[in-house]
Amino acid sequence: MDAPKIAVFSTPLVSTWVLDDTRRILFDAGDGVSAMLDARVHRIRAVALTHAHRDHCSGLLQLLNLTGETGDMSVMYPESSGALRALTGFLANFDSRSTGKVKWLPTGPGSEIPIEPERHFIRAFPTEHYPKQEASRHLSLGYQVVRMVDKLKPELSGLSRPELDALRLQHGREYITQTVEDILLSVTGDTTPLDPSIFAGSRVLLHECTFLDIEESRDMAKRGHPHSALDDVIRTAADADVDYLGLYHISRRYEDSTILQTVRERASSARLRCSVSVALPGRLYDDLFSVRVWDGAASSGEKVVGR
Ligand SMILES: [Zn+2]
Ligand SMILES: [Zn+2]
Fold first, then answer.
1. What does the pLDDT average to over 168-184?
2. Which of the residues 6, 51, 153, 275 has the least number of beta carbons within 10 Å of its own beta carbon?
């Protein structure tokens, strides 16, 4: 699969958003998203909010002001977040001609919301971005874009095309196929590292990577700001065997050159099979995966594409 077209802007504490241009879904709506996307905001048909931190949702009013009028816009958000319930309740009443026409979709872990085209849906999964005692409340969520596909049953894979055609004609299509999930994209939002099995088989993983060093992430977690560090994310991507890894939500404390060099070094020493693209803080990416910082160890040895 070719890399999907993903636009992203992410500076922690300021603004974060991720646009899946193919499926026309915006994950989070940080400040300035409408100004940065300009005419492209009109492509968006759904917004999926990961949590209530202001840098992830403060651009929602202007976005819906521009796009809500059509009545086709949906907004998913963690239903247990009191802050997001308050925000969406306010917006629902703010302007009957725009924000008032939005379809509000309170969402919990495991919720599946159908999207176009046929057999596609968005699924929410629980993330861990709040202190442990809050974990059961599921105040933060990540999202996956999934499509259901029919695949040949593995036990029939040795048969020839004419043999399969004969079986299909005799017993029907369902006899030779099984329906499986194809996880096209996973977006974590802010979180500490999760069980990689959540992302197993996901073609594309956009994972927050606030810190380059695990010690820093532990230190900040003690102060109530739990996030992921680069080695966590690399391990997750390797275990889940994704094809494309996009790193975002990287702290501004690092120089751009330090971020790129560190990602290359760690991906290389982990012999990471997938390719890696990086959304540097403060920069707008129109097509994140068009530039790779690491090209995948399995296909190209130590080959690295420079920026
Ligand atoms: Zn954040
Ligand atoms: Zn956050």
1. 94
2. 153
The residue count of the chain comes to 307
User: Do residues 25 and 14 make contact, with C-beta atoms less than 8 angstroms apart?
Assistant: no
Distance 300 CA to ligand 1 centre (A): 34
Q: How far is the CA of 158 from the centre of ligand 2 (A)?
A: 49
Q: Taking the domains of the chain in order of start, what are their residue ranges?
A: 6-300
CA of residue 159 to ligand 2 center, whole Å: 51
> What span, in angstroms and rounded, lies between the C-alpha atoms of 147 and 98?
30
- Which one-letter amino acid corresponds to residue 304? V
pTM here is: 0.92
Evaluate whether 11 touches 281 at the Cβ level (below 8 Å).
Answer: yes
pLDDT tens track for 223-257:
887 899 999 999 999 999 999 999 999 999 999 99
* Residues 6 or more apart whose Cβ sits within 8 Å of residue 175: 167, 168
Contact of 194 with 128, CB cutoff 8 Å: yes
Question: Could you read off the pLDDT of 114-151 as tens digits, one per residue?
Answer: 999 999 999 999 999 988 777 778 899 999 999 999 99
The answer to whether the beta carbons of residues 33 and 43 sit under 8 Å apart is: no
Domain spanning 6-300: CATH superfamily: Ribonuclease Z/Hydroxyacylglutathione hydrolase-like (3.60.15.10)
> Which ligand minimizes its atom distance to the CA of 226?
2
